[in-house]
């Protein structure tokens, strides 16, 4: 998706939802941040315009002209505007976003950031093993994410598939080893933030399927009566993956709190006409966003 393809309405919607935020400008060649900023509105989109406004594209003629140009603008020009923008935190109040910006600057000016090898890219939690501790407090959906992913979600076409589907809305990932239908064991359930990157998500369809296809307070008779063959994993209101229910693989689990819950074995569907209509490259927006009791499509 190029910048020219992004609707102004989408940019406004993204800006409204971000509120006050802290962001990083990253050199995509080595994955190293070169600028930390805070903003509201479409500040994240202003840096390219700033580079153009402060320089008309000609040669620098005087030392004074050269000194008047910030290091940030020089870097943006060097990259021809091809920069990665990461939203570090969003939905902050005025005091919080000043403090988060200062903390990020202190961190990045005190500890080195390793360069990426050619062909590698950064994604959320991509180097989680670098720390011995894991996140102890939920980020409430406001955690670090590449801006491009946020825009993709808002630009995703609305789901208009006509056939019945079972849509399962996944929450944030929870580490919890448990059995799954077919005799396997999963290491947790939910959706990991690094799977927002499509290239990463495609490598983890099996884990997403294990989260999507067990365990739920649903009726296998109702699913069959509705003629449902396919199950969709949704996260943040966008379809992320598609699975086919294997016939006659229904299983159940009894939980002291939740009672009887069902699950089933699945096949991964990652190509073909149905996949393109339901998921595709960037997913499809589910409107209205599915709630806990909204699982059967169409609503």
Structural summary, described in words:
With 299 residues, this protein is of the alpha+beta class. It folds into two domains: 3-155, no CATH class; 165-297, no CATH class. Helices cover 27% and strands 24% of the residues. The protein contains ten helices and 13 strands. It has helices at 8-18, 46-53, 63-67, 71-78, 94-108, 147-155, 198-201, 205-212, 220-225, 273-278; strands spanning 20-27, 32-39, 84-92, 145-146, 165-169, 174-179, 185-189, 230-235, 238-245, 251-255, 259-263, 266-269, 296-297. The strands form four sheets. A five-stranded mixed beta sheet has the order 12-9-8-5-13, covered by helices on one side. A hairpin with a 3-residue loop joins β10 and β11.
Question: How many strands, what sense, and barrel or not for the largest sheet?
Answer: 5 strands, mixed
Shape assignment:
elongated
Describe the strand arrangement of the main beta sheet, using strand numbers.
Answer: 12-9-8-5-13
Distance between the termini: 30 Å
How many H/I helical runs?
10
Mean pLDDT across all amino acids: 84
Q: Structural class, from helix and strand content?
A: alpha+beta
Spans with pLDDT under 50 lasting ≥5 residues?
Answer: 53-66
Amount of helix: 25-40%
Please give the domain count: 2
SSE run: HEEHHHEHEHEEEHHHEEEEEHE
Number of strands: 13
SS strand fraction: 15-25%
Radius of gyration: 22 Å
């Amino acid at each position: 998706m190029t910048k020219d393809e992004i609707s102004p309405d989408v940019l406004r919607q993204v800006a409204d939802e971000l509120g006050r935020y802290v962001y990083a400008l990253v050199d995509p060649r080595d994955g190293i941040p070169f600028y930390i900023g805070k903003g509201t509105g479409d500040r994240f989109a202003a840096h390219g315009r700033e580079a153009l406004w402060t320089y008309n594209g000609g040669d620098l003629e005087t030392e004074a002209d050269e000194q008047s140009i910030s290091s940030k603008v020089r870097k943006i020009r060097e990259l021809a505007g091809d920069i990665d923008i990461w939203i570090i935190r969003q939905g902050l109040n005025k005091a919080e976003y000043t403090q988060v910006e200062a903390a990020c600057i202190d961190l990045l000016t005190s500890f080195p950031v390793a360069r990426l090898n050619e062909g590698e890219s950064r994604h959320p939690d991509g180097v989680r093993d670098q720390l011995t501790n894991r996140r102890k407090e939920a980020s409430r959906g406001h955690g670090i994410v590449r801006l491009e992913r946020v825009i993709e979600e808002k630009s995703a076409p609305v789901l208009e598939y006509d056939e019945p589907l079972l849509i399962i809305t996944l929450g944030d990932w929870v580490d919890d080893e448990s059995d799954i239908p077919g005799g396997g064991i999963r290491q947790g359930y939910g959706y990991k933030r690094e799977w927002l990157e499509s290239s990463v998500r495609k490598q983890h369809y099996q884990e997403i399927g294990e989260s999507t296809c067990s365990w739920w307070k649903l009726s296998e008779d109702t699913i069959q009566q509705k003629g449902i063959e396919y199950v969709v994993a949704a996260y943040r209101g966008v379809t992320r993956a598609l699975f086919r229910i294997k016939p006659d693989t229904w299983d159940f689990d009894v939980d002291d709190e939740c009672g009887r819950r069902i699950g089933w074995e699945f096949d991964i569907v990652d190509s073909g006409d149905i996949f393109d209509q339901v998921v595709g490259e960037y997913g499809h927006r589910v409107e209205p966003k599915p709630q806990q009791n909204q699982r059967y499509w169409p609503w």
